[in-house]
Amino acid sequence: MRRKTNWILVLIAMFLFVGGLAAAGGQDESDGGKAAPKEDNITVGFSCAGMGNSWRMFLKANFDAKVAEHPEISKVYFTNADERPEKQIADIDDLLSKGVDLLIIQPSLGEAIVPAVERAYNVGIPVIIFDGTVPTDQHTAYVGQDMKQLGAHYAEALINMMGTEGNIIMLSGIAGQMSVELRLEGAREVFAKYPDIQILDTQYTGWSIPKAKEVMESFLQTYPQIDGIWADSGLMSFPALETMKEAGRALVPSSGDNLNGYAKFLVANNVPGYIEPYSTQQAAWALEEGLKAVKGAELDKVIYHQPEQYPFERIKEIVNMDLSDWWWLGDDQIPEEFLPQID
């Protein structure tokens, strides 16, 4: 009787184990725990690093517009980590508990969230990373732009505008974020080729306009000659140039992304600049690739997109002097109903 009871308990345990697997994202045992392909009724989870500026607002707008193009998506869960890795870890775990079929992650701090990313991947669902790398191979794909190449492009453009000698300052985003550090690395490799280019200083401004102005004010007091501004966003180069103008200093060539205020300043003051978008379409790109994976496609581990590059003459063509400074040129090609309200 005891042996018969033991067999019954074993069968019940096996039934509960298999049922648990099925509940965890519809995994297919025949494919090593990988979720079975789905064509419809897809639930998407989007773990956003933060929503603290207009770039993030356009990012979410482009994502929402792309969701609307896919009727096979039945539900979307969106979380905002407020740039706090510990919150993003909790957000990811919460999204997994909701049984999402696809998880899209914009890392707040890649190293810190590795355990959560790996847990998600081991559930068996596609995990797509964008706008910052995570140092683990346990994700389905990275989708976005080549960060090191982007930083190099900004540096090469600055050299083309100012020449192969002179003093430059560097302004970047959040210290430690992989996308930030890779852009800086790419730029420094370019500048290292030119012995007469001197990097006076590098500061992180967190993409904060007030912080960028404060840093630039300090630079102007410290360095009597600045010949160029390398910045990986118009959120830094725009206020830096404004500060130079307010101080009566000669305006210098600069780099930045597709912030309309930056483009407006360059054109209004006829000062050379270079724009290469760090596109807010990245979340939409991630969604498109992730849906392919949900439906059974095998993705490359790294999928890069290259937006259009805008030298100064092209900037004069794309700038919109009537729109907000905080508008993102080129990333507004979505239905009006999705465009954010930005003053």
Describe this protein's structure.
This protein has 11 helices and 11 strands. With 343 residues, the chain is α/β, with parallel strands linked by helices. The strands form 3 sheets. It has a 6-stranded parallel beta sheet with strand order 2-1-3-4-5-11, sandwiched between helices. Helix 2 packs parallel to helix 10 (282-294), helix 5 packs parallel to helix 6 (178-191) and helix 8 (234-246) packs parallel to helix 9 (260-269). It is elongated. Residues 1-32 have low confidence and may be disordered.
Descriptive terms for the model:
11 helices; three-stranded parallel β-sheet; 11 strands; 343 residues; alpha/beta; six-stranded parallel β-sheet
Give the gist of this structure.
This protein has 343 residues and is an alpha/beta fold.
SSE layout:
Blueprint: H1 2-23, E1 42-48, H2 54-68, E2 73-80, H3 85-97, E3 102-105, H4 114-123, E4 127-129, E5 141-144, H5 147-162, E6 166-172, H6 178-191, E7 197-204, H7 209-222, E8 228-231, H8 234-246, E9 254-256, H9 260-269, E10 273-275, H10 282-294, E11 302-304, H11 312-318
Parallel strand pairs: 1-2, 1-3, 3-4, 4-5, 5-11, 6-7, 6-8, 9-10
Helix pairs in contact: 2-10, 3-4, 5-6, 7-8, 8-9
Our estimate of the beta-strand percent is 15-25%
Low-confidence stretches: 1-32
Lateral arrangement of strands in the main beta sheet: 2-1-3-4-5-11
The helix fraction, in percent, is: 40-55%
Overall average pLDDT: 90
Principal-axes shape call: elongated
Largest sheet: 6 strands, parallel
Q: Care to count the β-strands? A: 11
What is the first-to-last residue Cα distance? Answer: 77 Å
**What's the helix-strand series?**
HEHEHEHEEHEHEHEHEHEHEH
Structural class: alpha/beta
Please work out how many helical segments DSSP would assign. Answer: 11
Q: Give the C-alpha Rg.
A: 24 Å
